Amino acid sequence: MPQRIEEHTGARIKSARKRRRLTQRELADRSHVSYSTLTKVEQGAMPASPSVIGALARALSVPFTELTGQPYHDELQQDQLDGLIQPIREALNVYDLGADPDLTPRRLVDLADQAEEMCRLVRATAIKQVAAELPALICEATTVAHTEGTTEAWQTLASSYRTAYDVATKLGFIDLSAIALDRLEWAAQRASDPILGGMRQYLRALAYLRASDYRTGHRLIRLGMSTLDQADQGRERDVVTGQLHLGAAVLAGRDKDSDRAEGHLAEAGRIAKRTGPAEQVHWLSFGPTNVGVHRVSVLAELDEYGQAVEKAHKMRLPDDWPPSRKAHHYAEVARAQMWTGRTEDAFKNLLEARKLAPQQTRYHPTVRETYAGLEAARRQMPDDFINYGSWLSA
Question: What is each CA distance from 87 to 81, 93, 133, 161, 187, in whole angstroms?
Fold first, then answer.
């Protein structure tokens, strides 16, 4: 069955508010969320947008995951993913212990190939496979990096840390994703690789986007740009620079700064014309398509849901575009369609997201909020809609 009423985001917000001994009016004033929105969200009559969740979490001084309910332990146990997290955590914790004397690692070239394959598998949404294989890769890459000390060895270790970040984020372990990013920076410094350093600041900025700390997010974007100034000019630097602009655009959109968002989108568009499709450059999926997808996201963040739906309708995603990015896009379009009353179209996009990336979609908080909104809006629900809710919250 769909989430029980005591489990929905609004109920968690209400619980946190009462723990802080705040009235709804007081919390609305502190968070700058309208009183009407807050009351409807708490009642479960309205889904909570990412910006609302972030603003309320900051006002309540709690992690935003406390309000979204992440990580979703019951579902992780059912999918047998819960037991794969601790080994990753343990592998991240041996970063500074030097070479493991009891470990005989593979050749660096083999580890580098596997690290690249891990990045591809994450984009193909094979999260369970990656989570199972990742700890061994991290441990071997750690030993080789300490033993050989070459730029390539440290870059390979940094890539494995990037994958740990991806897995932790997609499964809702935000504390672990922060640790992985710290390890990524540690390895990037030893590789003397400003490209990796700039990418790490982009990923950090996304964490502050989720927490609705837009000022810090923009500071990290600027730091990332400054770090990239140290890199050699070329396509790789352009791709990461363009991705930083896309991150800044979404930050500005969620902060309701349309002019700033448009400026970053325009600059990303100019860079994308120069780079062309660059999906595999650091697996950022950068290029003209990604700029278009981010434009849809920004319109949704600006609450311009009708324009977001219209823009998405005119887009055609390449057949070979990464399934993880396609699924994320369809989930965002579904949210915009839900707010414009296109409930059937919204549900079709949720189904498409599940088809493309079932594990990613199941653990995506926006998917759950969109489903809750559709559930509230539809008086009669077909069996496949009810089954979808059962799948989300088994």
Answer: 11, 10, 10, 13, 20
Give the whole-angstrom CA distance, residue 257 versus residue 264: 11
Beta bridge partners of 286: 278
* Of the candidates 155, 167, 171, the residue with the CA atom closest to the CA atom of residue 115: 155
Domain boundary among 42, 69, 96: 69
Residue 329 placed within a domain: yes
Q: Classify residue 232: in a domain, yes or no.
A: no
Whether 5 maps to a domain, the answer reads yes
Query: What secondary structure, in 3-state letters, does 77-95 show?
Result: HHCCCHHHHHHHHHHHCCC
State the Rg of the chain over Cα: 21
Nearest-angstrom CA–CA distance, 203 and 178: 9
Cβ–Cβ under 8 Å, residues 331 and 338:
no
Pairwise CA distance, residues 117 & 67, whole Å? 34
Return averaged pLDDT per consecutive 10 residues of the chain, 394 residues in all. 58 96 97 95 90 94 93 93 96 97 97 97 96 98 98 98 97 95 97 96 94 94 97 97 98 96 98 96 95 97 96 95 96 96 94 96 94 82 85 81
CATH number of domain containing 51:
1.10.260.40
Q: Name the burial class of residue 162, with classes exposed (0-12), middle (13-18) and buried (19+) by CB atoms within 10 angstroms of its CB.
A: buried
CA-based torsion, 298, 163, 120, 335: positive or negative: negative
Predicted pLDDT of residue 212: 87
Instruction: State the DSSP code for 49.
Output: P
Check residue 380 and give its pLDDT.
66
Cα 176 from chain centroid (whole Å) = 13
The residue whose two tokens read 């005119």 is 314
Identify the helix (H) or strand (E) that includes residue 314: helix 305-314
Residue-number span of the structural domain to which 342 is assigned: 322-394
Number of folded domains in the chain?
A: 2
Structure tokens at 248: 């800044």
The number of beta carbons lying within 10 Å of the beta carbon of residue 222 is 14
Closest residue by Cα to residue 235 from 274, 279, 199, 266: 274
pTM of the model: 0.92
Residue identified by tokens 């270790």 is: 157
3-state secondary structure 126-185: CHHHHHHHHHHHHHHHHHHHHHHCCHHHHHHHHHHHHHHHHHHHHCCCHHHHHHHHHHHH
According to DSSP, the residues that pair with 80 across neighbouring strands are: none
